[in-house]
Amino acid sequence: MAFSILASLLFVCYAYARAVPRAHIPLRDTSACLDVTRDVQQSWSMYSPYFPAATYVAPPASCQINQVHIIQRHGARFPTSGAAKRIQTAVAKLKAASNYTDPLLAFVTNYTYSLGQDSLVELGATQSSEAGQEAFTRYSSLVSADELPFVRASGSDRVVATANNWTAGFALASSNSITPVLSVIISEAGNDTLDDNMCPAAGDSDPQVNQWLAQFAPPMTARLNAGAPGANLTDTDTYNLLTLCPFETVATERRSEFCDIYEELQAEDAFAYNADLDKFYGTGYGQPLGPVQGVGYINELIARLTAQNVSDHTQTNSTLDSSPETFPLNRTLYADFSHDNQMVAIFSAMGLFNQSAPLDPTTPDPARTFLVKKIVPFSARMVVERLDCGGAQSVRLLVNDAVQPLAFCGADTSGVCTLDAFVESQAYARNDGEGDFEKCFAT
After folding, report:
1. Cross-referenced InterPro entries, in alphabetical order (predicted)?
2. Spatial contact of 130 and 31, defined as CB atoms under 8 Å apart
3. Is-contact 106 258, C-beta < 8 A?
4. What is the pLDDT of residue 356?
5. Which residues are marked as active site?
6. What is the C-alpha separation between 77 and 118, in angstroms, rounded?
7. What is the percentage of the chain residues whose pLDDT exceeds 70?
8. Are residues 284 and 344 in contact, defined by beta-carbon separation less than 8 angstroms?
9. Is the dihedral of CA 6, 12, 15, 20 positive or negative?
10. Residues in a beta bridge with 335
């Protein structure tokens, strides 16, 4: 399938792009050109460029897909403004060292921090376009020039840019015979089912993340301070320096020099578990008011699956959801664009990736099922396929192409359960969070 020729997109591998005419470059693993091993990239978790968690498998032969729902995280981005300030503080401390006695840090003498803030990077735009191409390739039988995908995005610039690159990729894959557009941008200042902005009383993951930081970071910090006398780095500084490995690599599409530090300090497992704790206790199962933030989207999903009006009293925008122009119920393919924290809330409200026990902030469980690298890397996506299985309306759900078992609705070994059973299983959402949403505003 052709690769995007939009001027805003760059090719990940310069030599590859030069060698092959653009009109014939196939979809591929763009992250393979970043000069960082796959295992290290995946350890970046929510900062990893997109990887499928499994190989896509078609539904059983007895089932035909008749409707598809996609919710996708924005593509790879620069650090947020808050993260950028913390990173720059850590870099300034490191550069203030009197000298560097560890050869690992020699590059810092000539290092200049140059990343932007918040916005999508070119690799993120590329992978968003490729996601659109993949969606057309996989579900082209559901769409036509008169039956376009319906596309929404949360109002953040990077989310809107992701949606626009996705629609461009979708159109390109169809040789511009099918040209979806971004129809609805939902303001993040109001009711928004695609952003976690409506639960002021919710806590955060700082206690658990700080506990883990105190567990893994001190030896790393000691090594860095020994090699950079006078830097006086804290454990928090060490973590922020480690994030430069993923952020610079996805931004420049070249291996960051900080990846040498990341790998020398053997940060992979510690960094990945930090991410797991961050999301689990941020908007996931470990946060009492985390899952309720995903309820509104699930009720919108149920409305679309069943072609019935939205029934929700949580995050939904009733004005948008009551209009067939801004919330149609008769489309065959829907694509929504969101953030990682919101998608974790949706997964947790739905019952995906549930843990048998909460994550321990001091000791990782190697058998844990809540793995951020498989849940919300950049460009992560959940796809709900509505199926006709011999006349029975059914559903199948995939996260990053991995079919979910859906034990909560009695799915068979192929991950398929009846639509009625799926809807029934979502009682928490259908009951507006069973009182949790009101707690979001408790004083």
Report:
1. Acid_Pase_AS, His_Pase_clade-2, His_PPase_superfam, Histidine_acid_Pase_euk
2. no
3. no
4. 86
5. 74, 340
6. 6
7. 93
8. yes
9. negative
10. 70, 151
Contact of 183 with 326, CB cutoff 8 Å: yes
Q: What is the mean pLDDT of residues 150-168?
A: 98
As a whole number, mean pLDDT of residues 32-51 equals: 92
- Cα 394 to Cα 146, 310, 384, 386, 416: the distances in Å are 25, 20, 10, 6, 7
Tell whether the torsion through CA atoms of 351, 355, 360 and 364 is positive or negative: negative
For the chain, domains (ranges, CATH) are: 56-77+128-199+289-439 (3.40.50.1240), 81-118+205-280 (no CATH)
Write out the two tokens for 418: 């009846």
* Partner residues linked to 392 by β-bridges: 389
The string of pLDDT tens digits covering residues 235-245 is 999 999 999 99
Cα separation, 429 vs 302, whole angstroms: 10
Say how far apart CA 312 and CA 299 lie, in whole Å: 6
Inter-axis angle of helices 244-252 and 235-242, to 10 degrees? Answer: 20
Q: Which residue has the tokens 């159109």?
A: 171
Six-digit token string for 245:
């490995």
Of 137, 127, 69, 56, residue with least CA distance to 402: 56
The one-letter amino acid code at 254 reads: R
- The amino acid sitting at 81 is S
In this predicted structure, the answer to whether residue 10 has a pLDDT above a threshold of 90 is no
pLDDT tens, position by position, 255-286: 999 999 999 999 999 999 999 999 999 999 99
The chain-wide mean pLDDT, for the chain, equals 93
Query: Which amino acid, residue 399?
Result: V
Strands 63-73 and 333-338: parallel
Q: Please classify residue 155 by burial: count the beta carbons closer than 10 Å to its beta carbon, then call 0-12 exposed, 13-18 middle and 19+ buried.
A: middle
Pairing of strands 392-399, 402-403: antiparallel
d(CA 278, CA 18): 41
At 71 the three-state DSSP class reads strand
Residue of 129, 195, 119, 138 lying closest to 163 (CA atoms): 129
In the three-class reduction of DSSP (H, G, I as helix; E, B as strand; rest coil), residue 438 is classed as helix
Q: Are 33 and 12 in contact (CB under 8 A)?
A: yes
Residue tagged 């006695």 (tokens): 101
Which stretches does DSSP call E strand in 100-217? 150-154, 182-186
Per-residue pLDDT tens digits for 170-218: 999 999 999 999 999 999 999 999 999 999 999 999 999 999 999 999 9
Per the DSSP assignment, residues forming a β-bridge with 120 are 77
